[in-house]
Amino acid sequence: MRREKLPLTHSPDHTRFMSWVGKSAAEIAEAVRQGKATAPSVVEEHLQVIAERDGRIGAFRRVRAERALAEARTVQEREDLAGLPLAGVPVAIKDNVAVRGEAARNGSAATPSAAATEDHPVVARLRAAGAVVVGITNVPELSLAGFCDSVYSVTRNPWDPRRTPGGSSGGSAAAVAAGMVPLAHGTDGLGSLRIPAACCGIVSIKPGQKVVPPPEQDWYGMSENGPLATTVTDLALALAVMAGDMSLAPPAGNGTGSPGHLEFSGDVGDRPGGLVPSGPTGLRIAVAATPLPSGFTVDPEFQRAAVEAAHTLGGVGHTVVEHDARLPGWLGSAAIATWLACALRDVRGLDPRRLERRTRSLARAGRLLARIGMTGSTGRDRWRAHAADHWFGDADVLVTPTLADVPPPAERWGRRGLLKNMRVNVTYAPATAAWNMAGWPAMSVPYGWHSTGMPIGVQLVAPPGGESRLLALALQLEAAHPWLRHAPLG
């Protein structure tokens, strides 16, 4: 991992004696706006923690120490500091979108090394809101896998370094779960935000189409930019900034507000639950413990978590019904064909000699399927046009397990071939792709612990336009069933 040297500062500012590491983004921004902390001191603290912890985790491809501190000083001097929603908040950006002055390598030695001259619109919005980009996070090559290994690093799960943090936004999820940043950016083409969020015990949301500017590689309109965080409040705030729509953010103070309105009740601490939601009641919540096509299995502990999460929502005033239908088999086939078609599309123009074995084999399989007209497009179009709505039924929100099995080992999967990678990806993380293909919003929320000691994530899905509804329900789960916000790194 490339690092800039962290310069020493000798500030007499009394705020430096209070640690902001581990605080939520909302707390940090409020402190910086009110002058209780300074953006440079907050950023420097987080850079020091990255230097201490990332050697064990491998979340970052590049740490921008000197540049981040310079940018933090610029934030501190802004005339509009008191109105910045993310004032001084350190954020990490996934290595597949443009960050001005940095190369977007997308986990590959084959991609161009030239620095971007402009920020992607999502990065620009984060910076305009006062956030400071402290680093670029690791991804699997071309973000094509549900792991997080590449020529740059094998990223490890903070809860168990022997396991993967998931992918492809695994570096971002690991950085948040390890307390190195309170917020991170990721992208989700077939589950790449929700999978690592579930693996790492944090929250993430994939917005529906046209809510947030998409990544350049949009995977046939399926891929979306989104945030990862440790609290639903932070998640909603970051989504609102990325979307350029602050109505998605939870309003502070008293009043009625929109769904998911919050009243702040002090320090969040390391276990959320200090936020009291006055969100909606009377929604129809469908729970599908085993929603996958026939032939797929879901760990019984994950099934139980989804059912319990749904009944927790029932306990705060919603109606819970069972959804027994399995997703159609043709949808699973279309998802796999789409994955391979995306690999074929993404390797165009890249030197195959510099690509990893996994990437070459995925693209080769995509090429063979394309020759016989199997690109997944027919299934994608059918699902998005009407089949998703028909299968979903009359529910307002669907609850499912996010994963089907615990995270696999953190290894160099990129050096392995097609069959091993496909088998493990499809076995442990098959439950997310359907909602990319539909273009519907979906999120992952921590809910309990597996007998292996790993966190469990439950997936919430809503029809188009349901982002606020999902966030409101996630707040109710957070209040009723708090989770540990950070892995206890020694």
UniProtKB/TrEMBL annotation:
Gene3D superfamilies per record: Amidase signature (AS) domain
Pfam families on file: Amidase
Signal peptide: none
Lineage per the UniProt record: Bacteria, Bacillati, Actinomycetota, Actinomycetes, Streptosporangiales
All copies of domain Amidase, residue ranges: 42-471
GO molecular function terms listed in the Swiss-Prot or TrEMBL record: catalytic activity
Protein's name in the database: Amidase AmiB2
Disordered as annotated region, ranges: 250-275
Protein family (similarity comment): Belongs to the amidase family.
Organism expressing this protein natively: Streptosporangium carneum
Coiled coil (residue ranges): none
InterPro entries: Amidase, Amidase_dom, AS_sf
